[in-house]
Design brief:
Nuclear Transport Factor 2, Chain: A, 14% helix, 2 domains, Jelly Rolls, alpha+beta, 292 residues, elongated, 4-stranded mixed β-sheet
Length: 292
Amino acid sequence: MNPILTRMHKIFLQIITVSIVSGIFGISGCQNINNSASACPEKPSSTLNSKRVQDIQLSSAKISKSDAVAGGESVGYTFKAKKKQSFNYQVENPDICIWIFDPDNKIVANSNLPQDGKYLAQIENRRGAGSFKIEMSLNDFNKPNLIVAATNPPSPSPLPSKPTVVQTPQPRPGNSPKDVITQYYEKINSRDYKSAWNRLPIDLRDNRTVHPNGYNSFTDFYDGLNGININSLDVVEKSEYNAEIRLRASCKLKSNKLSGLFLRFHLKWNDSSQQWEIYKVRLDPNEKTVCG
């Protein structure tokens, strides 16, 4: 057997869920301010990679953000705020936990922000992998809400009832999760390795267990094949922001023999690019062989 294939066979059998370990924000232990405090731990249980942190501008107007987190991962948002302001948020997913870190890297015990500076909102899913959508805003907590009451307001006229309108979910623009995987292997089969490589998440590209020589390991492996035939792509799970696809394919070896390739691709929806993106690849737990 081709020694490159033998070596890569061993490497691919070691594919596991990649934990983010580089570029981590320093975080000290403290309490969270999640509305479900009894369900969330006192401090994050996951690491926060600087590549998963986005700088945002907050004001009294709400802004909406959405993302997906894998098990053992977090997403962060940094924002500038002043003393005498309060951080307000609302999430759709009840499994989401949020911790707010002040400029001194200490958690804020409630929504009132204690000083001027840059804050970090760290978000994770206490159930493991999942997506979320969050609305955030800043308000002056010492500024009262002004409510002006009208004198002897007239009684409103009853309004006619309106029929309930059920909105049909619209398909997302751009490629489907299956399209992304199909195009990934089309790039490989056409020897456009750079484009295929760039479709993989950065933490998988940087993983030295899977790619001990980085990009060269990737190209060496596929140079040892005559191509990949996709036999089937099955949707294991799909939600608004996450998808899991099962790949069943055949590697065409230089000897003209075929060998099985069975992987699970995890994808997330990126609101910014309006595209599905690969964020994790693992062995199919129901299969045993991987191109070797």
